[in-house]
Amino acid sequence: MESLDEVIDAMIADRVIHRHRRIWLLVIALVVVAVLVVLATGGWKEKKGRTVPTLTAPTTVTAGRFEYSFTKAEIVQTPKTEYDEAESKLKVYFDAKNVDTEEHESVSIDSQLMLFVPGHGEENVESDGASCHDDKIGWVLVYGLPPESCSMTFKVAPDFKADVVEIGVLQEHYESDNEALGANDKPYWHNEDAAAVVRLSPKVVIDAGENK
Amino acid sequence: MKLYRPATILVGVLFVLIGGLTRLATPDQVYDEQNIKVVHGTIGEPLDYEGTGSTVKVTRIKFARSVLDSSDSDGKKPLETNGIYVAIEWDAIRGDRKPDLTNATLQADGGSVYQPVEGLSHSGLDFPDAGYAKTGTVVFEINPADMKGLTLELRPTMLFNVYNSDITVDLGIPTEAIAQQMVDGAVAQYIVEDAVTRVAS
């Protein structure tokens, strides 16, 4: 048989639990709504502008183990033929020099070291690779020799037109992986990040197929 | 019960001492990599790949101002350079086990590391099937200002660290003066022949 005290205690406890229930529900609902609003408006991340310099060609950029002197850009249009669809590519010309003062090693320019930045929220376009020395794909640049003229191509839509294109140049860093995680402490070239953005005014060139 | 009897402490101290002694007893590290045997030789010397029965030999080196594949059509222009090309003619005899894929580089005393030229289809260095021998050419573009002590290095690329050989061949350019002579005497054009496989005798 429970005593009166116990009955009163139970009643008080019941009251205490239920007293602020509506407020609690409201607060939780508000938090959920706030999260939804933040997500809908593009997340909590602070939007930063471009943090690397924007340069206009002709210009020289030193990025990682290469020094690039940008000269010109072309939009190469290949008209539709009986066998092939019409296609366009953006071709960027530059002189490249190997300035790897750390390892003095001959190396070819990796296709990941440049990006075409279309802007307007569109995704960056990766390159199809660099060719130097009379259009030799994957040409190896030797440390200590004068610059070679090179070009890099990017696939674009067949009707692509632009007065100005922006090319993002990435730089590798000569550093080692984290030794504390058990990696080798020898530094090497990796960890590419943005070095600069170069603006070029492309000329439209029609490739009638002599080169095919 | 007594937790720390003198004998317990003595055993602990002994373990510490033994640990220290074993550290003293390990020999100083002699090699950078303990699983790599460096095989050093000169031009014309067949060099052994440890445990594979294969050998590789540099038969001749040739300096040139331009290079061309032997199978290129008549109208094709040779590859020119602002530096100098060095063509290394090699002869490889394959044993029963294939040596691990080798990565050919040239190293000079000035610190330069040269990689083979891209854009020549006949340039390269590899091993034929067992029982065969192969001759071929690998071409490098190099900087004439850093040629002293030029050494060809054939370094195996390994997935697992097994016992392996690192072959280095001294290309016989001990001084700057000899390097200059090599550059001055470079031929105008070198034609890279396709690799030829024959039965190992």
Keyphrases for this structure?
heterodimer, A: 212 residues, alpha+beta, Immunoglobulin-like, 2 domains, eleven-stranded mixed sheet, 2 helices, 17% helix, 42% strand, elongated, B: 201 residues, mainly beta, five-stranded mixed sheet, 11 strands, 14% helix, 40% strand, DUF4352 domain-containing protein (chain B), DUF4352 domain-containing protein (chain A), membrane (chain A), transmembrane helix (chain A), transmembrane (chain A)
Provide a quick synopsis of the model.
Chain A: This is DUF4352 domain-containing protein. Chain A: It comes from Kribbella rubisoli. The complex is a heterodimer of chains A (212) and B (201). With 212 residues, chain A is of the alpha+beta class.
Would you spell out the secondary-structure blueprint of this structure?
The complex is a heterodimer of chains A (about 210) and B (about 200).
Chain A: H1 4-19, H2 21-40, E1 54-56, E2 59-63, E3 66-78, E4 87-98, E5 107-108, E6 114-117, E7 125-132, E8 136-137, E9 140-141, E10 148-156, E11 165-175, E12 188-200, E13 202-206
Parallel strand pairs in A: 1-12, 3-13
Antiparallel strand pairs in A: 2-3, 3-4, 4-10, 5-9, 6-7, 6-11, 7-8, 7-10, 11-12
Chain B: H1 6-25, E1 36-42, E2 47-49, E3 54-69, E4 79-93, E5 102-107, E6 113-114, E7 132-142, E8 151-156, E9 164-170, H2 176-184, E10 190-192, E11 196-199
Parallel strand pairs in B: 1-9, 3-10
Antiparallel strand pairs in B: 2-3, 3-4, 4-7, 5-6, 5-8, 7-11, 8-9
CATH architecture of the largest domain in chain A: Sandwich
CATH topology of chain B: Immunoglobulin-like
* Greatest interface and its participating residue counts: A-B, 19 and 21 residues
Note the main sheet of chain B: 6 strands, mixed
Number of strands of chain B: 11
Low-pLDDT stretches of chain B are none
State the helical fraction of chain B: 10-25%
Share of residues in helices of chain A = 10-25%
First-to-last CA distance of chain B: 81 Å
Strand composition percent of chain B: 35-45%
